[in-house]
Amino acid sequence: MILGCKTKQVDKNQKQQAQEVVKKPNIIFILADDLGYGDVGFNGQDKIKTPNIDKLAANGMVFTNHYTGSSVCGPSRAVLMTGKHTGHSTVRGNPRWTASGTPVDINAEDVTVAEELKRAGYTTGIVGKWGLAENLTDGVPNKQGFDYFYGFNQHSPAHHYYPKTIFENETRLPLKGNDPKTKKGQHIHYLITEKATDFIDKNHKEPFFLYLSYTIPHFELTILEKEKEQYKNLGWPKRKMKPGHYRHDEDGHITYAAMVSTMDRDIGNLVEQLENLGVADNTLIVFTSDNGHEYDDLKNEFFNSNGDFQGHKRDLYEGGIHTPFVAYWPNKIKAGSTTNHISAFWDFLPTACELAGIQPSDKIDGVSYAPTLLGNEHQQKNHEYLYWEFNERRGPIQAVRKDNWKAVKFDKKPVELYDLNKDISEQNNIAEQHPEKAKELLYLINNSRTEHLEFPLIKKTLKK
After folding, report:
1. Is the residue at 12 inside a domain?
2. Quick one: pLDDT band at residue 457, thresholds 50, 70, 90?
3. Which domain holds residue 435?
4. Which of 22, 322, 380, 426 is 20 to 30 Å from 101 at the Cα level?
5. Residues 6 or more apart in contact with residue 236 via CB below 8 angstroms
6. Is a pLDDT exceeding 70 seen at residue 37?
């Protein structure tokens, strides 16, 4: 009898566990590359068509105060994956901007969101740009918790849309007929989309995490001619692009818009795929960008890619780190909702963990925004402050946001202070009018980082 009761209890527990697994949502994190806050329709874009991303916003939740991990690719993605801001993360700058000139990757000690979700029974995949394994050692995705990888381990190959090779897992595959200089062969965006589609097809019956890391619309600007048709003959001024390292198509405006709209269409197709597979209602889709835009000319703006913000890529003003963010989850996230909750890339790991029913296993800086997603704002924990550091070109630069206050500190210059509630464009430095607040945020700037031998906060020059 005792044995029988125990067996029944085990069966009951197994059944409960199976039900819990079913309830775990699939998670798709879609990351655009160098897309500005104002490059999408739901944030006011009136030239570039993004109907599918806008539909996610209309039927999901828009975050108006979401920030990236950094104002350039590498450190931003490291922050996203590890839940640690740039004062604590392993990668704090792009590959060439280290003290030694040797690239720094995330390492074996780093715990990624993929590794966390593996503990919760997820199948994990990344398709597109990884950019955290320049040395092709411990930083490669398959050693960082991903079951499947198709894309770019390193930065430079990802600069081109017709690369000669691509990685699938840890194998470098030749792309026959591809030539990045002449732009012949297969445009990588379409292959990335195809592999993402395949991953979902193969893994949708169990909980999965897909990190869909597009390279659009990063320089170089090039896309198939058929994608440009909708933007031709609109009377737009021509911005002639000069090919160099980046093998740009000639007309920048048309090409940039067509690239973004191509990505938008493929995101729409992905949503349709989820619906056809019957898993849309159990799938959280997040869409955002890794940092601010690079293309739009701030002196002669055409797309107004940064909206009302100052600066763009490589700035710690809002234009460099404040990016579009929408979360879509049918029947879980209230359609057409907006939140002013202040969040950042380092919050994704704890959010994913909470939704998967686990706790982060490493010390992190992130705060889960799952309560906000699910309409439980009264349970939402808030950051005391957000911190960034960046050390290229005009660096070192540091920044802090605390409530409505934002401080920006350039090397050996007085701290700048802005009230974002009144001055989202950061035009009026009010540090002298509010010396105590400036002092408070300067303290946070000076005490929010650990030392890193490869990323000291001293003026840097590129190693040749």
Report:
1. no
2. very high
3. 389-446
4. 322
5. 47, 253, 254, 302
6. yes
